[in-house]
């Protein structure tokens, strides 16, 4: 059903222009510039930057009454995708605190230290993240499952927590981009009307070199890791919640059901082993949910802000400008990459960005001789590349919420999306792979 002009998703009220994107500049100015000037990414709360940008976005929308502007902002904040993210955040907070309280994180960290030597910990963590994300097809689910383990490893080994967290986030984008069951893969192939297997064959030839380069970086930098010579013994019973989460996620269970199963198993084992009482378990879940409060507020503000940008014609203007002058196949491929990247910047959701520009990308591909599996690969890859560089993306916010770190503190160590972007740009310039 076409909902382009429905009350839920109304058409833009104006043709847009660069002015429609200025709320994003206000956000970036408040958050990035202030943090850089202060020399500390913790000085400027991201929620305050979003409030400033949101107030500005509502104020400059002058073609409708104030109450109507607030209504549109609220509808953006309550978008079904936004609300689904919030429910996942709530359950993730409850599971993370339950698992920590009953000793699941410590037991999983001890198991990891027994299995891997110190120099292989970063590379092993990256490979585990790639495998889990490819298996379950969701980067957010991978972050939920593995970031607490990364944080525990950092505390046990003395390695940089932001670095280990970034390793997990980078590996999470590998599967988000490549998995057959990823929503971005499905969106890209549906909009380009091509087969999943054909898109995978093109995609893997671009993604694999980027993953291998990143793995090499972690193998080299991991040589400085220090692992205790006598790690704590593994309490296998306490590893069960994480094993259940990983196994059920890999089996394809919905992420919310996975988290509920993790919460219940953590509670049952914690009560059986005397790790906490029933009231202590409830109190721990409450603290975990409360700890996600800022993350939930940021997500709501981001949804409302990006809806105002769309309603003001910002995304339509980007598409119009980017498609105005295209020449040759390289230009067409670069335009497809630029379109989905800018749409992702304005939506903070790589699936929505692909769905937004996908039909236009298909027409560009057909006109300039770009194969549809190639255009599907470019859409998916550049959306994941851009999503990995957004401090207000769901993956970064989730990782920050689980660790208490600033999104920018994690981003400075996020190698894989950057390497992926560079490799894909080179693939466009060199027509790689040439047989496609």
What does this structure look like?
By secondary structure, the chain is mainly α. The protein has a domain at 82-181 and 207-293. Helix content is 75%, strand content 0%. It is built from 21 helices and no strands. It has helices spanning 22-38, 46-60, 66-77, 80-101, 104-115, 121-136, 139-157, 161-178, 183-192, 196-221, 236-250, 255-273, 278-291, 293-311, 314-322, 328-347, 350-367, 372-387, 394-403, 407-411, 415-429. The longest helix has 26 residues, at 196-221. The protein is globular, with a radius of gyration of 22 Å. The protein starts with 21 loop residues before the first helix and ends in a 7-residue tail after the last helix. Mean pLDDT is 82; it is low at 1-7.
Main sheet attributes: strand count, strand direction, barrel closure: none
The stretches of 5 or more residues where confidence is low (pLDDT under 50) are 1-7
Percent strand: under 5%
**What integer value in Å does the Rg equal?**
22 Å
Helix content: over 70%
Order of helices and strands: HHHHHHHHHHHHHHHHHHHHH
Quick check: average pLDDT?
82
Shape: globular
Distance between the termini: 33 Å
How many distinct beta strands? 0
The number of helices is 21
Q: State the secondary-structure class.
A: mainly alpha
Secondary-structure topology with pairs:
Layout: H1 22-38, H2 46-60, H3 66-77, H4 80-101, H5 104-115, H6 121-136, H7 139-157, H8 161-178, H9 183-192, H10 196-221, H11 236-250, H12 255-273, H13 278-291, H14 293-311, H15 314-322, H16 328-347, H17 350-367, H18 372-387, H19 394-403, H20 407-411, H21 415-429
């Amino acid at each position: 059903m076409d909902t382009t002009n429905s009350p839920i998703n109304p058409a833009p009220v104006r043709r847009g222009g660069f002015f429609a994107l200025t709320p994003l500049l206000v956000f970036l100015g408040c958050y990035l510039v202030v943090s850089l000037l202060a020399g500390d990414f913790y000085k400027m709360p991201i929620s305050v930057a979003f409030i400033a940008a949101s107030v500005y976005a509502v104020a400059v929308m002058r073609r409708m009454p104030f109450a109507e502007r607030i209504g549109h902002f609220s509808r953006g904040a309550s978008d079904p995708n936004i609300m689904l993210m919030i429910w996942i955040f709530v359950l993730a907070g409850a599971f993370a605190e339950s698992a920590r309280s009953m000793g699941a994180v410590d037991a999983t960290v001890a198991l990891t230290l027994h299995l891997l030597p110190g120099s292989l910990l970063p590379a092993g963590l990256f490979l585990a993240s790639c495998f889990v994300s490819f298996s379950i097809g969701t980067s957010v689910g991978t972050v939920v499952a593995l970031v607490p383990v990364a944080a525990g490893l950092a505390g046990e080994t003395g390695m940089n927590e932001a670095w280990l967290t970034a390793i997990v986030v980078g590996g999470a984008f590998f599967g988000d981009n490549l998995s057959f069951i990823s929503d971005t893969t499905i969106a890209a192939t549906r909009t380009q009307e091509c087969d999943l297997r054909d898109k995978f064959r093109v995609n893997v030839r671009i993604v694999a070199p980027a993953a291998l380069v990143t793995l090499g970086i972690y193998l080299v930098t991991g040589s400085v890791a220090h692992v205790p010579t006598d790690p704590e013994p593994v309490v296998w019973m306490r590893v069960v919640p994480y094993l259940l989460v990983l196994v059920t996620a890999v089996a394809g269970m919905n992420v919310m059901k996975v988290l509920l199963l993790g919460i219940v198993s953590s509670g049952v084992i914690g009560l059986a082993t005397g790790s906490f009482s029933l009231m202590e378990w409830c109190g721990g879940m409450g603290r975990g949910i409360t700890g996600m409060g800022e993350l939930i507020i940021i997500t709501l503000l981001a949804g409302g802000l990006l809806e105002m940008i769309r309603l003001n014609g910002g995304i339509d203007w980007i598409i119009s400008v980017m498609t105005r002058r295209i020449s040759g196949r390289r230009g067409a491929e670069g335009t497809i990459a630029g379109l989905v990247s800018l749409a992702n910047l304005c939506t903070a959701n790589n699936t929505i960005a692909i769905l937004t520009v996908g039909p236009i990308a298909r027409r560009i591909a057909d006109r300039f001789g770009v194969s549809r599996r190639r255009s599907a690969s470019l859409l998916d890859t550049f959306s994941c590349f851009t999503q990995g560089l957004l401090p207000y993306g769901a993956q970064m916010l989730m990782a920050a919420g689980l660790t208490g770190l600033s999104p920018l503190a994690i981003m400075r160590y996020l190698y894989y999306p950057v390497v992926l972007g560079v490799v894909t740009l080179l693939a466009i310039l060199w027509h790689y792979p040439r047989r496609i």
